[in-house]
Each structure stands twice: as C-alpha cells, then as structure tokens.
Amino acid sequence: MKNNINKLWALLILAVVFLNACTPEEYELGSLISKSDLQYSITPDSSDPNTIILESQNQGLTPLWVTPMGRSTKVVDSVKLAFPGIYKFVYGVQSDGGFVQADTFTIEVTTTNLSYVDDPMWDLLTGGVGSEKTWYLDLDADAVSKYFAGPLYYAGTSYGYGNACEDEVDCWSWEPDYPGNSWLMDAGDYGSMTFSLAGNATATVNNPMLGTNETGTYFLDADAKTLSMTDAEPLHDSGNDGNVINWGDLKIISLTENTMQLAALRDPALSGEGAALLIYNYISKDYADSWSPEETGDPEIEVDLGDGTASDAIGVTNTKTWKLSTTSPFDWASIEGEILNGWENISDYPEWAGYTEADVDGISSAQIQFSANGSVTVTDNEGVSTTGTYTVNESTNVITFADVTPSFSIGTWVVATTTADNEWKIIKTTVVDSEVTDIWFGQRDTESAQYMVFHFVVE
User: Fold this and answer.
1) 94: which strand partners?
2) 32 - beta bridge partners?
3) DSSP secondary structure string for all residues of 145-177
4) Which of 183, 279, 362, 433 could lock onto 263 through a cystine, CB 3.0 to 4.6 A?
C-alpha cells in the first residue's frame, strides 16, 4: 500500500464530510489553509550538520513530514543522515478544511557521520558501511521454510524485540508451522529485499508475487528496535497487502546474522480482524544459498518379535517357510508402521486394488524359505525356485537380499518386490504363544512417506 499516511488523511476528510452531513446545517467544514500559509523550518543542527531539525510553525495543526528516513507527525523532530547527498523533505498539515502540502524541499549534506550507523544491528541488517545485504522471505516455491516454522507469525500489539512484551495488556504470540497452515500465504517466489549502506541507506525490494519493484530509503533505530522504510515495502504476501496501516513502520522482533523478523501492525478497520502484529520471517541470502535439508531418517517401528530377534522370527529353525497370504496379500502402511487400509479378506479389497478370488491360484505357489545359515530360497508364481543369501539388521529389522530378488505378481497390477537396494523391512507381525505366525514385509516408497506391505504367513 503506497502513501498509507496520505490515505489516512483522506479517510479523515471523508469522516469530517460524513459528520457534517449528519449534523445541523450550521456546522460546516472549516476553511482550508492556504499553501502560502504553511510555516516550517528544515535546517541542519548547528553542532552536527548531519542532523536535520524539522519544526512545524503552524500552531494547532497536525504536521506530516515526509523525510528520507520515513514519515513523522511530530511538531519538532530530527533526522540523522549518515552520508553526504542531496535529500528531499516534504511538509504538510491537516487543517479543518483538509490536508495541504508544501513543495518538496531539498537540502544538501556534505559531511559524513558514521556514528549514526555504528550499532551492531546496522552490520547485521546490511553487512556494514559500504556493503549491502539481501534477505528472502522464509518460504519458497517448494513450500519450504528453511529456518522458521513458517513465513508468518502473529503476536499481540505489545510484543517486541527479543520476544518480550512492553506490557501485559496485549501480550501473546502464535508461531504456526507452514505445512500445517498453508492458508497463511501461497507458496511461491517472493523475490528479494536488499538493504544497502553503500553511499546511502537505500532499500531495494523485488516482489514477483505482488508484481512490484521498489527502491526507497530506510532508517534503523537501534535503540527503539524499529525499522522505517520509505517508497519501498518489506516482502509480504498479497493476502495481507491491504490489511496494514503503514508497511514502512516496522518493529524489529529479532535480528541475527542469518535471520530477521519484522512486524507490521494489522489494522482492524482494514482487515476486519483484531489489531495484531504480523511478524514476517526472513533469512539472509547467504543462509538460503548454503542451506540443505536435514538428513532425517524414518522413525523406528516397534515390532513384536515374540521371544526372539528378527532373525529368529524369519528363520528360527534350520528352515522356515513363509507363504504369501491369499486372503490379504498386500496393503499400505504409514511411515510409523500403521497399516492404512486394514484389509483382512479378499472381499475387503476395492475394485481398483485389482485382487479378487480369481487371483488366488496365481499366488498359491509364492513363498520364501529362510534358513538359519543365511541362505534363502524364493519360489515365484510359477513355482520356480531361486536361491541366494540374506542378512538382517537387528536394530532396524531390515532384511537385505543378495543373488536373489523376491518378486511376486498379485492380481492385475501389484508386484510384491523389494526396494532398489533389494531390501524389505519388517513392519508388523502377529505373535501366537511367543511365536511369529504372520509378517508384513515393507517396501519403502521413494516418492511418499509410506510403505507398501506384503503379508506372509508361516507354513
């Protein structure tokens, strides 16, 4: 939203007009002050030419200053400009008759005062004097948030820097994760936001999701933990674009070498919801470029193995033969090992599964015979047997085959076979009198977090 403060003045004028229409005729809109009657001064401080003093001299009228470091409604204010340059200021007031603005006023600063930008927060935001630093919203087109739980958090209006509250009146926060709350905003390319201290404090924001390319100025108040932006808005989503009073008036919630959280105030009148801080989460370009997903293994599945180990369960004697179940030969299981469909009989299988009574004969020969010495014999649908070896990882219940690959056709399209690494994982068992009578061997799906499981019963 551009020129939000000007919009507020416009709304104020409309409100005055509305009230005038609803009251007796003797109450009329006041006279509009003349542009020539605007009285103000914009002068360098006598002891520091990099500090510009602003003073409104129209008594009784509310000023609105537009400065290189943001907007202000103070009667007397100051702007600290660290670098030489020609800077633009605009003065205006709200009178009874409406808003009046003076012509743009320019002032040249010829000196440098780096004490204005020597706080460590400036270095974290920009990389330091003479540098610039690029930030991304922590959500990409693949719906991944690389550091935070999601790109947008919410908090009460008294929430502030360091996750602390200024008071207890409106002190709360909510940090929704994006996978469970994708309604927060659309996943996509939100572009970049660059803060520069190379010659001046400039902000460049490119947001493809809003179709905007902006270049403006900014000012970091390290003491107040606020960030002001003029003529450029921080990266944000379209859903909240029209819900904030002033995108250039931001609280800093946190700022580190790699992460930043900026909060804008949601307005009840604009959003139709209560006042709250919208906390946008950002990561630095360096962090994003070097980030890689954590290597997280599948959760361990607790399996009842009776009184023994996985090796004992599948080949406790010299040989132990397992036949493919004809009543419930296959199903799917979650990554945690929960059987998803729970098919127990042929009649339980839906039409799309492609397994009926007519397919029973086709799998009646399918079996695996494990021997305690590590050998295994696989007999396929046609009754042809092949011998190989197997090993068992007792900590994960994973069986790895060598020189033989179990492969059995089931119905019209299912094939009970191993992974690309020629492995099965024991997902579930049935135990009777401490003996394992049924095993569901799982083939890990490569595209989704689940297993296809094949049900074998002891012969």
Assistant:
1) 62, 99
2) none
3) -SSSSSSEEEE-TTEEGGGEES-STT--EE---
4) 279
